[in-house]
Amino acid sequence: MSAYALNKLLRQVNQNPAIRERFFADRAAVAADFDLTEAEREALLSQDVGALYKLGVHGLILRPFTLLQQMPEPDYLTAIRG
Length: 82
What we know:
By secondary structure, this protein is mainly α. 74% of the residues lie in helices and 0% in strands.
């Protein structure tokens, strides 16, 4: 499992405006730059917040990522609680 790579990708999207812009324009291209498992790649590309959480994305990285996508708090909590 490459939870480290997945966390690193999302952290960079959260913190780096250039990567963020590139990510929202072409998620698959940015994902290709990281050593992700197929499950991680699918969860990322489908924006499956619950799966991202279960795959090991830390809440302090995942929540800011979902805020960039304007996900309301109740929806976020529902997703991570499964």
